Amino acid sequence: MGLAPIALALLLATPVPGPAPARARPAPASERKARSAYHAAGRAAASPLAEAKAWMRALVRDPTRRRYRHNWEKGITQLERAAKGKDAAPALLEAARARYALYRWSAIEADRDEALRLAGRASKLGSRDARALAAAIRREAGEDRPARTAVAHAERGGKPAAKAEHAERGEARHALRPPPPAEPEPTPAEEAAPDPALEQALGDLGEAARPVPLGESGGEGTARVSEVRAWSSPEYTRVAVYLSHWVGWQKRELLSDGDHPRRLALDLRPAVLDGKALAREVAGLRLDRVRAAQNDAETVRVVLDLPGKDGVQVFRLEDPPRLILDVGPAPSRPPEPAGTPAVAEATPAPSAGPTGAPAAGPIPGPAARPEEPAAEPRPRGEEGERGPIRRIVVDAGHGGHDPGAIGPSRVREKDVTLGIARRLATRLRGAGFEVLLTRTGDRFLPLEERTAVANTSRADLFISIHANANPRRSFAGMTTYFLNVADDRYAARLAARENGLDAPEGETETLRILTDLDAKASAGASRQLAQLVQREVCAGVRERVGEVRDLGVKSALFYVLLGARMPAVLVETAHISNREEERRLASPRYQDEVAAGITRAVVAFARAGPRVAVAP
Length: 616
Fold this sequence. Notes:
- By secondary structure, the chain is of the alpha/beta class.
- The protein folds into three domains: 48-161 and 191-206, no CATH class; 208-329, Sandwich (Immunoglobulin-like), CATH 2.60.40.3500; 382-616, Zn-dependent exopeptidases (Aminopeptidase, 3-Layer(aba) Sandwich), CATH 3.40.630.40.
- It has 18 helices and 18 strands.
- The chain has helices at 3-13, 29-45, 48-60, 69-81, 88-106, 109-124, 128-141, 144-155, 162-171, 188-191, 196-202, 413-430, 447-456, 489-498, 507-516, 520-544, 579-586, 588-608; strands at 223-233, 236-243, 248-254, 262-269, 271-273, 278-281, 289-296, 299-306, 312-317, 322-327, 348-349, 367-368, 391-396, 434-437, 461-468, 478-483, 550-556, 568-575.
């Protein structure tokens, strides 16, 4: 029985005083104790710390809200405000844990530094768990001595000095220096035994979303289908269906019956459609029309009208939850490349259609950006054949409200990747290739749109530029990835960060996606391209910039490569979390050398390597 019923029973059992008592009768000791316990329980339930912890728990379990930094800052601020009286140490510990979880989400060094400062304050107030958390963060960073000094400073009530940040920014303008010898990459055994203090801080972030049966929502209730978008070319169409959270879904194919074309129906339940029903024509040969409507009170149905016999691949992407449908012929096996690349300049923009928009007019194909003319379709050979490598899509990772990883001196990954991408485009054009950039400025593109640009533009190669980050600050080096099952836990965690996830998805899901997309048809060519990029960039940096650690070629499930219908690689150009490599990444000299190395690799691949491309 709870405290409230007990107190109520005691109150009812208390004798009622006479009409004119000389003095109120004192309550029995048992009643006073029950009342005290009742009020104490009420205060605990409504305490600022309890409310702040509940708010943070709800945040980390919400894959949509936790994508936005302001939500994290609000929750952490509530925890810090709750740090009063006997709740001071526990509240600061929770704030430190939340700030560390944000660091693992953002890869921003300042978040980890702030987690150490908060842990130091909690440790000063006697929290052993806070001291253990700070020690675990220092071990992970590999910088015990500097971090210990920072915590000791925080324990004395100090705050990070502003001068230090200005000094770090000033150092980034100094001449390039070779990075110190990097520590060995964590072994699988080390990766398999995470620190309990850090795991406790991450909490619910480690739980990846799992598919649920049709009609179920995993306890989250009815989902909202907020948008349906499409990107199309004559030979390929991608459709993306955006949801507020995952619910059960089912794919059904309806054959042509004379009055109706072949259709693919996607039912989502329980779900409701935001805005009006959608019915839009789609440019291209693979899909006539896409429709979305409320099929019944609990079911949203998305229908694709398919004029031909093309296959439809369906897979999930996270944060925000969305279903991707790729329509088009499967990739074919490669012929040998031949001929000389042709020159052209183009940067297409994918089309989009929100569910709430009027259902008037077709969804257009790629439109030209103001700064560059649209790419013209190129002639194809016989069925299953492709011409030589001519058109290359270069993708600058992150952008807009997504800064990517941020280094100790506040260098942002999105700025570095755009600088390298622009230099790479210039060099590739100089070598005779036609180049398309997924972004030419500081704007955000979802991962599925980047690959769709390459597919709808009928590109021959796709190269995505990134900068790596590692919790161990001394870790350095470059790696080139291609799409496949992750080679190791480290590669899986890196892919999770680039994908905007908190933890890698299961290998079973990875294998299913790769099998469905027939990605192995281009895995060999992608691996060869990755090997050439890795070799040429490392050799050029060593010769013209300084020593670099070659971390080799690896595979992982990067969403930005998922569904690419041509050889595709992702280049992690250096570790922005390492101070020396952060300086390099901010340097035009290093950016240009990376671009030069990738260009040499592409030229060598185009001349000699086997390749894969989609059949017309």
